[in-house]
Amino acid sequence: MNSRRAIESNNRALPINVEIVQYAKEVLDFSSHYGSENSMSYTMWNLAGIQNVYPSSGDFTQTAVFRTYGTWWDQCPSARLPFKRTPPNFYSQDYVELAFEDPVYPTAVHILETYHPGAVVRVLACSANPYSQNPPAEVRWEVLWSEAPTKVNGPQARQFTPCIKQINFPTNLIRLEVNSSLLDYYTELDAVVLHGVKERPVLSLKTTMIDMNDIDEDEDEEKDGGGMESLNKQFSVAALKEWPTNGYFDKLPYELIQLILSHLTVPDLCRLAQTCKLLYQHCCDPLQYIHLSLQPYWARINDTSLEYLQSRCTLVQWLNLSWTGNRGAISVSGFSRFMKICGSELVRLELACGHFLNETCLEVIAETCVNLQELNLSSCDKLPPQAFNHIAKVGSLKRLILYRTKVEQTALLSILNFCSELQHLSLGSCVMIEDYDLIASMMGAKCKKLRTLDLWRCKNITENGIAELASGCQLLEELDLGWCPTLQSSTGCFTNIARKLPNLQKLFLTANRSVCDTDIEELAANCTHLRQLDILGTRMVSPTSLRKLLESCKDLSLLDVSFCSQIDNRVVLELNASFPHVLIKKSFTQ
């Protein structure tokens, strides 16, 4: 449905102009969602068009929902260590990009949140028109608004209208970035409304308040000629002219200066390098770049940035390029050059949402990164299926994240056969795999060290695959079987899991309506180390079996019983009173 209208602006501080009001026309990109790739329920695609739910509150399938909330996911066996040097003002965990019909100078952005609001931490606008036939020479992103995560009282719906700043280019591409760590449950977004005018507004004294951090950042960029150019100048040796004296730093041990500088962010290191010869030497020392995360600067990283960093990154071991390089910012040749020079020592490589990646990139990674142990390709949904065959050459892999990718069965079987050191594997929402029982059988035979496995929304695994998996991978501590419709409790698959996998700390059986009291009692008897359990949607579990589980599993900290028909709010309150250390979740719909 076309959802735009025009109204006359009554704001006298602006020239008389027509304000256009638009709902998102299309969802272009996102990092994760709760829903399936083959339906609309709980997917980011629900953000296109007018609202479906607002102003109602509650849990509705017609909304957009990200994959995680809270901090429980950061306390799982599959949790990854954070990168050092992450800027203190970078809070984003997920994002979604929305296209609108008409480019406008934004005057307001309304975000319709219908359940557990408060996750949005940043709103950005892009200079590129996704519907233009001619790609722009430069893609520029501008922060309209940003703020640290804040706790919102109550899960009720609201219209969130952040106080945005004015920008000097028209846009029809808006990006929301979210942080759900303070939320008590999944946030749900219904629609985004963009207000704007065709002609650039004249700034007035009554203009929208701008955050002081934004002012400082903008002033720095103005002096250096723009965000991307500024960062690249900081990387560039050519930006340095005359060196002042080294002050008292000459008297400090080299190692002490290195330790002090290790607390600086990457842009601060680049700025400091321009102060004196001694600090330039320290700031360019490859030892300062052992762990390098460029994700916080995703909007400013391009081929030139990587070229400037090459000489500093010859010893890099952890590299995070997640979210970077899209819309032509990083080319295949630029990425390949960087990896050939800087990839030999890599142990961990994060490339989530890297839509510039193609088969050549994965081939270069496989040939160059001979020590690689962790590879994250989450939501790299543009990678062609044949590209994944190259991963099988990286026999040292211990962690592989393929969430929302087009990996196919043949490539995955090859990976499992040759990467026997795998300890952590994510295959959530991998819809191209035809026979998950065969995949599970291969895991049981080859991946004896597997500790965590994500099979979220795998469409065809049965009790046979579970039996092979449980028999062969007995070190498993985390298993996500959420929204796996072909698993039925009557086959004994969940009992088999409980008896064969005593080390389980996290088990998600989300939306499996066949989970029953027998399964819960088997978990209570055998999986006493259980910390997180999701049985959302079951009709067969009683308060009695839950109490047995809570009494047996002393370390249990998260229990989701949303939409469990026998577990009403009264039961939840009673269990909360008896077991206050457990976070018992109960969602609702109005």
Automatic annotation (TrEMBL):
GO cellular component, one term: SCF ubiquitin ligase complex
One Pfam family in the UniProt entry: DUF7885
Keywords: Leucine-rich repeat, Ubl conjugation pathway
Gene Ontology biological process terms, A to Z: SCF-dependent proteasomal ubiquitin-dependent protein catabolic process
SMART domains: FBOX, LRR_CC
Signal peptide (from-to): none
PANTHER family, sorted: PARTNER OF PAIRED, ISOFORM B-RELATED
Protein name, UniProt field: F-box/LRR-repeat protein 4
Lineage: Eukaryota, Metazoa, Chordata, Craniata, Vertebrata
